[in-house]
Amino acid sequence: MTTEQPARRFYRLRAPGTGGEQTAVSVRVDTERDDPFPVYLAVGAGRRRMHLTDAEAWTLWRCLSEAVASLGDPPDYIRTNLRPSGR
User: Fold this and answer.
1) What is the pLDDT of residues 54-83, one digit of tens each?
2) pTM higher than the cut 0.85
3) Less packed terminus of the chain by CB within 10 Å, N or C?
């Protein structure tokens, strides 16, 4: 049995903040886009949004993973499996 992933997938997680508020982090991957930017990153409800090429997304992942790893062990809330959703 083959399970194909849809062309458009969303990955979401909330980051805890001070005072109990949370910041939504969302990534959309759309492999059928007509432009070279299949990855869309959104952090919070403001203007922190980016369209990325796959090369930029991989480079961002590498830089972020090294930088964040230098802060210590990951917090418990991050130890979860993210399953893509269709919307």
Assistant:
1) 999 999 999 999 999 999 999 998 888 888
2) no
3) N
